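Chain X:
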Amino acid sequence: MIDRKLIRNFSIIAHIDHGKSTLADRILEITETVKRREMLDQFLDDMELERERGITIKAHAVRVLYNRKLDGMQYILNLIDTPGHVDFSYEVSRSLAACEGAVLVVDATQGIQAQTLASVYLATNNNLEIIPVINKIDLKSARIKEVSAELSSILGINEEEILKVSAKTGYGVEDILERIVTGVPYPEGDPDSPLQALVFDSKYNPYRGVVALIRVVNGVIRTGSTIKFMGENFISEVEEVGVYGPGMIKKDSLTAGEVGYIITGIKEIGNIMVGDTITSLKNPSQKILPGYKKPKPMVYSGLFPAEGGDYENLRDALGKLSLNDSSLEFTPESSSALGFGFRCGFLGLLHMEIIRERLEREYKLKIITSAPTVVYRLTKSDNSVIEVKRPSDFPEQEKLIKIEEPYVYATIITPKEYIGDVMKLANLKRGEFKDMQYISPERVEIKYALPLSEIIVDFFNLLKSITSGFASLDYEPLEYREADLVKLDILIAGERIDELSTIVHREKAYQVAREITEKLRKIVPRQNFEVAIQAAIGKRVIAKERIAPYRKDVTAGLYGGDITRKRKVLEKQKMGKKKMKKIGRVELPEEAFMSFYKLDINK
């Protein structure tokens, strides 16, 4: 049996693009876990999209054997590489729950970002030993002294305790390994207690079924034993137990303190949820490990195939993606404008973008996306409460007592010279100021309560624009609050287009209506008949634009004669256009459904 005192479980946490995956590469290289000839950049990011964008989408766990020269002992370091984006904060929290320590990586050129702070709070909440690291010190633009002062202030430590490294060149990485061994406590746990194992991630293998990544907290899990997933109340048998090194290495068992994988032959990933507790059916634990919850989608959008014949292919592709991503929800929906598609639930806008890109890249599908919306909570006149995921499902306004929308607690970190612009933007987005404090003489942390619906479309892009790219944003769900919201319908040639309907605050309704109708006037193709573009609340039209028809000069062939001849021909043309208007259909281009992304309503 492995001596628990030689095990160290740790995670690398950082803001996107601060060098987390590069540092993981150097650790794998220095410990010779991966041969140099087999080494790839961002080795643990095995998805093409992860490597291309420089982000980690799925958690990865790898066992590293570190031969320490000082005492001649071989230590087992279990490295858990976590996603770095706010959309995946629940997965990050469960990965951290599987560790005793965290290597906090901060870019020497960018300093502390909003997601860095969120990661620090998550690590602190899980009582982890934090090892602060400043990366990219080899760059000319590195601000080592300033960033050290920021980190020291936030963590309440001496600057001497902060490690300075270059993950790209490998400088200082050996010091991190040494600090992990000396600073991170070995895992607690009793191998003789009833089995308790935490599921911190899972993925689907087309040949073996679901592979669950686990940390054994107490007890022992063996091949052939019958286990129970306590949160989902699901029973299964363990077909295989092992560790990643980084390939799958089969073992007879995993004991308290170890990190590895189990294969159960389960074909539905929905039966194995991140954060669930595994116990033995024969000798079950009475307590579920804390922190378990089902990831709940925060943003909903319609996905429709551009080619009508691809509906079945889209359904199969979403089914396959959901095998690897239990947080993806999808249900069939139909649209008069876009045909048959699916209403999908996502953790956030990045999650939505990743799913869309994977559908287009991996499954060669051309996708049209409808406006992203949040889940609204409506109280009807009969006091019943319903949740609505798309504007077209909204009841008539007079049937509602109140409408509630989700709020988030947003943290923005920005250079001090942009404070005024950031606060102006947050106020325009109906934000409620909460707090502001300087994290260094040059940088400020600002906190706001903001409606989620105001964040999901263009808030991040506007924030980057007004701060010259220097600001960063992080947010977490807060609560539902009552708001004066209305449903804004868009009508094209008298036909209501559900996919263009949106929910807006009453004060902003006219401004948004003008913006949408003006944008659509430039996007919708001209027809042989006049096309009216209208924005309406209920039956009241509040904005209108007109697309003039093509007009053939039908009088060109008439020479001389009475004026009534011309009038007769023009009247005939007018009647024909009137008839065409009744039976004509306007084909909307794809960009019409994306026009809501770039509304300039912040003037």
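Chain Y:
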Amino acid sequence: MNEIKQKISTNSRITYFKQKGDPYIFATGLGLVVSLAMVAFIFIIILTKGLGFFWPRNVHLFTLKSGNQLLGEIWDKDTRYQQLPDGKEIKIKELKLKIGNRDIYGLDFKWIDLPEISRDTQPPFATVIERMEYGNFYGFIRAVHLGEQVVDSSEEAIFHAARQAKKKSRELEAIIAQLEKAIHDLTEPLSVLDRQLSLLEISPDKDTPAGQKKLHQLRKQIDSLEMAISDEYSRLENELAQRYAEREGLYLVMETADGHTKNILLKDIVRFYQPNRMSRWQKAAHYAAKLWEFVSANPREANTEGGVFPAIFGTVLMVILMSIAVVPFGVMAAIYLHEYAPQGKIVRLIRLSVNNLAGVPSIVYGVFGLGFFIYMVGGSIDQLFFSNKLPEPTFGTGGILWASLTLALLTLPVVVVATEEGIMAVPRANKEGALALGATKWQMIRKIVIPNAMPGILTGLILAISRGAGEVAPLMITGVVKLAPSLPIDGTFPFLHLDRKFMHLGFHIYDVGFQSPNVEAAKPMVYMTALLLILIVVVLNVLAIYLRNRLRKKYKMGAF
């Protein structure tokens, strides 16, 4: 009997425990903890793998038992198992050395077994050179050529002379850039006339009297313009040739650890440093300079080196254009569905379709954007307004405008649903009170519904930004490119060039991580770009959340 009573009591406690909901509270809390732990784990991996990329590591000179010498940075350590002839396995520790000098060795990294190393030193004058091509060069500066002057004395003097030579090279590059720009500006009108002449020569109207007259006028203008600029053009060309020759005389004579000698032009050097002689503060300054270069400079070396500023600019501008396009249409659609459309089966079907659109694969939107926006709309714009440039397309090809509109279409269901939820949260009494005071329906919507639903609208915008900023598949066929030579915004009229192609951080991650010719060396760049993309999305979301909370507080206070 006591056992039966005890069992009944235990069952009662279990039933009460379930009815109280404690298991479900525990399960939901556990799910939240696991989700946050996964996010934190991913973020920590990105931070640890990416932030250490720019820190200047010491350069090691390893002398192997075979007599060979290797110079480079230690990037990783591992243990491998080797099977002996008798069947036993032994553990061998090895390290991954970044040896650079890709133009000499054909690779960037080399694994070395620790038992094969007989000596490990850190030469103070071991130099790391960051180049425009072929990655880093590791070696020793043996001489500095400054035209007719050659410095090949002590290592300290050579390094000082190399710094002075690099400063002179930067000044020379600035002069060359000014001369090239002057030549471009001088010949630009001539290029325009040449293009007009070429288009007219392939035009069907060239054989008409008017066409012949226009051809004669263009040729006459070209001849007179060539005569007018010939003297100045010759002077600039001669001066530019002199500067080019002077640039070829500025170079460093480098020697690798195994005795190879190579001349490196200073124009091909981004920076050089000797990490084994640098203090902590000098390394920190170097780290800050590299970090600034990453966010402010253009990419180089197949996007595996340099900065990602064009990708940052393209990502932010695309998100802004997408937001400008999606919010008005999403709000208007939600207002019509909730306030104007007669509620019935058709409206319920439309709502169901809008919800289902949120689950359509993004690549489908990309194909639609290619067919509708680029080929149909863009092609029609070219026929109407840019027929003189055909067959070269202006808007009939991928660009930031069409990519933004495609992503606006992709995120439209999210904005519609969130806006309609915000409209439903507006108290009915407020709307009826406005109508009772004589306001029209549109006045009631404009003065009561939209302001009070603004937090919901901004919630939809936040969700749209979060999804749109990270999408890559639709962009690959609507305008994103590996390298964009010109930004969509510049100082040339009309200043905002929506027809231009652009770079994007998400596509940059894909390109560097999977399409790079040297994926192993590009891994840290992938992590840094991913971290930057996360930070941009967080900043945009925080700004939208801040505005939403301010509006929510404003209209909550206004209700009293």
